[in-house]
Amino acid sequence: MSVILPGATIGILGGGQLGRMTGMAARSLGYDVHVLDPDPHCSARAVASRVITARFDDADAATDLAQECDVVTLEIEQIARPALEAVANVAPLRPRAEAVFTIQDRIRQRTWLDKHGFPVGPFRAVSTADECAEAVAALGPSICKAPMGGYDGRGQVRVKSPDEARAAWHTLGSGRVIVEQFLSLDLELSVLVARREDGASVTYPPAVNHHVDGVLDWSICPGPLPEPVIAHARQVGHAIAETMGIVGLIACELFLTTDGRLLVNELAPRPHNTYHHSERGVSTSQFEQLVRAVCGLPLGEVRPIAPAAIANLLGDLWEGIVPDVTGALDIPDVRLHLYGKTSARPGRKMGHLSAVSASTDVALQRVLEARRRFSRQASQG
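Request: output the structure for the sequence above.
Response:
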């Protein structure tokens, strides 16, 4: 196994908030950081010594990035395969192109999970409006999803009938759609696994998550879950990372159904919103862990050091007001994390609040109260 020591350069495909926070961790460990992103004002620009402004399907730009880097990782999975392969031809790409290619398409991802025996809900892949209608007739109420992109609730349509399914197929407009049976859920959770090239790995404590309109609203860790559920979630996450040969991070979003089944919802081969509290409540943050994993350094401990919670701050909170930052930070053990984005719009993740406390209940109460105060008009006097 090759070890890439501090002083080397880490390339990041994607310059959003995850790239920014990974870059900050890399800087703390003594690495230089280069980034490729289509947005010339991307969040990671503030921490990168070089930013290549290019589309994620630009293989020449990806080659340019890799040529000056000792290792390349990513903070978004929607990188075109030719660009991934262009990087891999020049520098180590972690995780590997095949894993990213499998995960970035919901149909490929769900088919892979099913083929390898991982627990998933009933689904069908369809390519016509009639097939979509037939799938819903067989599965019952379902969610129709575009196979690419569509994160944070976008690119998804809930349907109850074959006629609604036909309309959804046209609305999604991708030509290919995955139809997933609507499930009765007890809760949503996630588990994060870090793995090195030599197979050494660590699995973070599962987090319990709450979404609103398909967007993560808050998350707590360690999740208040029965021990058998915790053990099962960790086992599933570890097995997925091993089977896929991940080098870096993989986040596994899971459903716990009302009848007690634990099912895999989606995978992400990168840092994840549901583990932002790892900066506060776990002995090694997910961002430092990613740097350690892709550089072949010893993996950090993932021991919980305090119950923690995060609450997302979406662009809606900036509409027509100046948020009350001081009011939010007046709450004990609350910290504000802003992503340096220059424009706010509804639904856009602008930052998050984190808190630690003696219990996840209190930590959650603190971040929710902090967000309530944050959303007030700040005094201008």
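The chain has three domains: 9-93, 122-181, 185-374.
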